[in-house]
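PROTEIN DATA CARD
Card holder: DUF4440 domain-containing protein
Chain length: 137
Origin: Niastella populi
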Amino acid sequence: MKQRPPLPPFTYETAIQKVQLAEDAWNSKDPNRVSLAYTVDTEWRNRDTFINGREEVVAFLTKKWEKELDYKLKKELWSYTGNRISVRFEYEWHDHQGNWFRSYGNEQWEFNADGLMQRRYASINDVPIDSKDRKFI
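Structure generated from the sequence above:
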């Protein structure tokens, strides 16, 4: 299995680096690129959806970014210990009708020894916004 540095156990510096790498990957809006950060048998809960394995991750993200247009994400390290990291995040996007949203959430991440994420649990809420109120342009 290929390693995905930085590896656990995390320090403050390596946890910050892991969060930034995740933010960069998700902002690429490339489902295949994003999926490579996860174990082949990764387990996710994303809102009310349960996802198992990289193939389902790719399918989920493909559908997500077909709906969430001009997606822009910011992540912030909340806490870390051993092989786990918690983040808070917000992202903005619009639908096909031009309605803008800011989505807020928290994620709990668990990594294997090779630095691949084996578990991701995300709680997310969407708030309608006016396009003039966007933060991430």
